[in-house]
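Re-run requested by the PI after the first attempt was lost when the workstation crashed. Everything re-entered from the original request form. Ligand of interest: iron/sulfur cluster.
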Amino acid sequence: MENIIKDIDLIAPEEAQACDFKTTGDENTGKSKKLYIESYGCQMNFSDSEIVASIMKENGFDTTSDFEEADVIFLNTCSIREKAELTVRKRLSQFNTLKKSKPEMTIGVLGCMAERLKEKLLEEEKIVDLVVGPDAYRDLPNLVSSAEDGHKGVNTFLSREETYADISPIRLNSNGVSAFISIMRGCDNMCSFCVVPFTRGRERSRDPFSIVEEAKDLFEKGYKEVTLLGQNVDSYKWSPEENNKARLNKKEEQVSSLINFAHLLEMVAKVSPKLRVRFSTSHPKDITDEVLYTIKRYDNICKYIHLPVQSGNSRVLEMMNRTYDREWYLGRISKIREILGEECGISSDMITGFCTETEEEHRNTLSLMDIVQYDFSYMFFYSERPGTLAAKKYEDDIPLDIKKRRLAEIIEKQSAISLERNKLDVGKIQEILIEGKSKRSEEQLKGRNSANKVVIIPNNKFQKGDYVKVKITDCSAATLFGEVVS
Ligand code: SAM
Ligand code: SF4
């Protein structure tokens, strides 16, 4: 099945492949030192690797896509599921031979796995020289320099303010059309299954003016789409005096001005009507009607919302500490449909086999899927993560075969729903943004509609970055097919 990517427990649409495993692109300018980065996990990690590349470039390192010629190798890692960590460990073992033949090469583990395991990672993985958490990337040049002198280093300091707002990311593996902009870091929610609050620290929002500047700069360079990234974008809140969410909540009355996510969306949408704006991830407890009306008001804000539900059962949601129940979630979906209509794309994340989940509760997830009619979903079985609230409080008591069977059931349901949702598009005229050639054939182009669905059209005079009006003529569960409307 084409949309199964590296994690066997993760099913995602085509576009998610970009956030599973990638090497850097060539940025070579002939300087001597070379950096090779691989990113694992979510889009935030890809965005972070672009910040890392920029910090390293300032210090004399160009990126390379050939790890054999690298002086420094960074693996920017993910801890969200056990499988993600095992993949990184396997990759490290593959670098063993290289390191033996090139002992002067520096190998660094960055990101969530570094933050979670700290010094332990140096003990467990002998080839690793550096362990650096997501808030310590400014220290990378120093740490690399010490490693070159033979001193291994660890920096997993978690900041309450760092947003890397002043760093202009180097776009890696870019199609030159779409780019990510990180708008906030960390997460203050404490979903009981999730390791992110422990690996990425407290929630802070980035200066909105630096975000707008980054969007303008991208547009001037020819980009046509930006995706605003954060673990919980609806919770974005910034004031000139304070960017840390918890502290800001305490002194909201005293700050000179406040920018929330609806304001930020509007500011970015105004950069140009020809710059599409997307965002991810929305949290059901935080997405406001103000945000929905802002999306409606601007044609260039894409009509697509990723609104992870995790489970369709209120008791399980409570154990997950998601702070909403099934009814609240369905209420938000009704509001999206009321304000943005049937054509707005909606996707979700779901976890099967969370602690104590019964068959009936699992069926509640299936029935919620029938009601919501998601366009697509990222689906996982529960993977207990050390240190999380769930690991401390609950027994991981659902056998793996049951977790997997339930996962297969939701995947099957999602496939059927995706096909039905896509069929509704057949016959419609939609505007797509061309991203490049289709992977399958030189004869076809690949674009995306506002609802984030991939649309394949015959290759003709169009270029990457063109907006094209197409009539949808056919579909599969994963893709729409169209022809250009003259
Ligand atoms: N902040 C986003 C939100 O709350 O929706 C999601 C961030 S997380 C990187 C992406 C997804 O991974 C989650 O929505 C959840 O479905 C899944 N996930 C997180 N922890 C997990 C775990 N322990 N086992 C399985 N899936 C997990
Ligand atoms: Fe994890 Fe929940 Fe935060 Fe998402 S909102 S990153 S699932 S703690």
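Saved to the shared folder this time. The mean pLDDT is 92.
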